[in-house]
Known about the structure:
Elements: H1 3-31, H2 34-53, H3 58-67, H4 85-110, H5 112-147, E1 150-154, H6 162-172, E2 176-179, H7 186-202, E3 206-210, H8 213-219, E4 223-226, H9 233-240, E5 245-250, H10 253-261, E6 266-269, H11 286-291, E7 298-300, H12 309-315, E8 320-322, H13 324-327, H14 332-346
Parallel strand pairs: 1-2, 1-8, 2-3, 3-4, 4-5, 5-6, 6-7
Helix pairs in contact: 1-2, 1-3, 1-4, 2-5, 4-5, 6-7, 6-14, 7-8, 8-9
Amino acid sequence: MDSKTLNIIDANIDRALEGLRFIEDVCRFILQDKELNARLKNSRHQIINTIKLLELNRTELAIARAKGNDVGSTILQKEEFTKNFDDLLLSNFSRVQESLRALEELSKIYSTNAAKSFKSLRFDNYKIQTDFLIKYKKAKRMKIFNDSKIYAVLTLEGSKRYVPLVKSLLKAGIKVIQLRAKGLSDKEILKIGKKLILLTKKSDALLIIDDRPDIAFVIGADGVHLGQDDLPVKEARVILGHEFIVGKSTHSEKQIDLALKENPDYFSVGPIFETNTVPYKPVGPSLIKYAKNKTIPFVAIGGLTEKTMHIAFKAGAKRIAVVKAVCNAENPEKAAKEILKKAEKLVK
Length: 348
């Protein structure tokens, strides 16, 4: 095999291994996903093993590289320096797949088995990319959720008020918003949801749709919140997919235990205090104390305002839902800012 061919093989092996190593480190240190990390590590080892089918070793390739003159090494594109982290991930997946395709084509000349192996590795990487992006998108959404101390629930009678209200809440710094519009038609909810998702995405905030995984999917929301009489979590995931957040309402210790068996991404507990937004009796802060010992995050809801929120946080809540405190405020932005400021002081 001549040195020029060795240079091509060497360049593509390096690109594939470097791309895999970068993605592997993201799985290891950011996603902390052992299963994906193991699959990526296995891919790297298989590439090295496949080189042997070409009757080559890394030393031969390194020697060929040292002798070669790579005119592409000094060519830089502006795009290489303007990527965000998401683009960086996608470009490294593409880098791996393109390199494996080049190795597959070149190997056809020298080893059918090597060509088949590189092809198999390429298709494996497509599947890894799909699985990775699902988990990565979920992880990004859950980080926003977990970092948020205030979860705003919108319940308005006039549909025209939703957009200005959400603009105010986002400006105040609210990062999780639930659209609860039980009195509106599906068509109206869809119309409002499409407007709201544009606003929340620009602010790196989450939009959760109450009750309706189908509408959440259609508008590209970040998730759905399910009540006790809604679809089970498993069925909601069939509609939405696993990259979306699915929450579950609970109103008792028994309901919390049953909800956890469904494996939601979070659950709500309440109503903590008297409220007319839900038809349940107040459960008080004792349910928060029960919920705080569970393994998944929860949000306390029901009758929580700037004056009562300290009780929920003292009982062990890390985040609370506010409804009327922002929806009925004369100045929603100011009200939300004051609630956020107080929450920051109360949550350690």
